[in-house]
Amino acid sequence: MPSHQPERRAPRRSPEATEPLRAGLRRAETAILEAELAERPSERFLAAHHAALQVAAVVLALRTSPAARGQRSRPRNAWRMVADVAPELGEWAGFFAATEAKRDAVRAGAVSIVSSREADDLVRDARAFLSLVERSVG
Question: Which CATH architecture has domain 16-137?
Fold first, then answer.
């Protein structure tokens, strides 16, 4: 699990500008709650990873310009993009990127490769990541 980095505050935004960010954070919170309630470790793992991606989307919306988001270039990995635009979250991005292979395997049907402990740890880590980003949104 990554260490908590000193937070870098985003520039002040109007309440109207922050509402989509807050909606994204609410979606992430909902995904974490779904993960906490899931019975199977594989379901908890997938929901926690989805929640972390929801948080990553908020970071990208917060740190990239509308012009950059609208550019149609080759698809990029969300975690690489987070590390690029929010270097203080690079350790978190690397951590969650490292879980993608297992997430893909679970999606493909390899549900027994995730232990209950591993799923619970990922849920906890997704919640910590969400809390860190929530503080930066304000």
Answer: Up-down Bundle (1.20)
Q: Domain extents for the chain?
A: 16-137
Q: CA angle, corner 21, sides to 52 and 38, nearest 5? A: 35
* CB distance 78 to 53 below 8 Å: yes
Interval 12-40: pLDDT, tens: 555 566 788 889 999 999 999 999 999 99
Tokens read off for 17: 């500008």
Q: What is the percentage of the chain residues whose pLDDT exceeds 90?
A: 69
Residue 19 neighbours by CB under 8 Å, 6+ apart: none
3-state helix, strand and coil shares in percent for the chain, rounded to the nearest 5: 75, 0, 25
What does the H/E/C string look like for 90-122? HHHHHHHHCCHHHHHHHHCCCHHHCCHHHHHHH
CA 67 – CA 44 distance, rounded (Å): 35
